[in-house]
Amino acid sequence: MNLNPNNIPKAGHLLISEPFLQDENFVRSVILVCENNENGSFGLVLNKLSILKLCEIVDDLNFMDSDVYVGGPVEQNTLHFIYSGEQMMTGSIQLGENLWWGGEFQELIQKLKNKEISNENIRFFIGYSGWAEGQLANELQENTWIVCEKIDSKSIFYDSPEEIWRNILKNMGGEYQLLANYPIDPRLN
């Protein structure tokens, strides 16, 4: 875990929105950073369900009634995925222990059809969250995001979308544990 919110995140780190963030795309969001380099940053919001099911998006997966998450406001006509366990597909990028991003999509479809991948170990996202060069660094300077360096892939796949933000902050301890209980609207407290 990282207790320095101004640390530049790396692939596999989490960005946790501070409790006062009012941007509707990122209120109480947890974003898995997939890339962060000199050209910009790319991540996926882990806790924002879409209204779509996977079978409605991909014809070849019409047998899968899986939830699809909103990865972010950018290019919502794209589909992304992460999975846990051993590397199962060509081209997957390791983001952490037992956590993988992307890979060969036709290979994924075949493995899902053959039931080689469990529905509990994969998440699908429409769109993504992106930052231009220097944009994320500026947002970190403004304390928009809290960086968590150590992630537990189990919480990504098993915590409910409503609880993941709070649970990660609680697990970070200290001042972050206090933020986890901060009300969405402090006037109602």
Question: Can you walk me through this structure?
Answer:
This protein is α+β, with helices and mostly antiparallel strands and 189 residues long. It is 22% helix and 32% strand. The protein has six helices and ten strands. It has helices at residues 54-57, 105-113, 135-141, 153-158, 164-172, 174-180; strands at 14-17, 30-37, 40-45, 49-53, 67-70, 74-84, 93-96, 99-101, 122-132, 145-148. Strands 1, 2, 3, 4, 5, 6, 7, 8, 9 and 10 form a ten-stranded mixed beta sheet that branches. Helix 5 (164-172) runs antiparallel to helix 6. The longest helix is centred in the middle third of the chain and has 9 residues, at 105-113. The two termini are 29 Å apart.
Class by SSE composition:
alpha+beta
Rg estimate, integer Å: 16 Å
The biggest beta sheet, please? 10 strands, mixed
Strand content: 25-35%
Mean pLDDT over all positions: 89
Number of separate helices: 6
| Secondary structure: helix percent | 10-25%
Q: Unreliable runs, pLDDT <50, ≥5 residues?
A: 1-6
Shape: globular
What is the element string, with H for helices and E for strands?
Answer: EEEEHEEEEHEHEHHH
Task: Report the strand count.
Answer: 10
Straight-line N-to-C gap: 29 Å
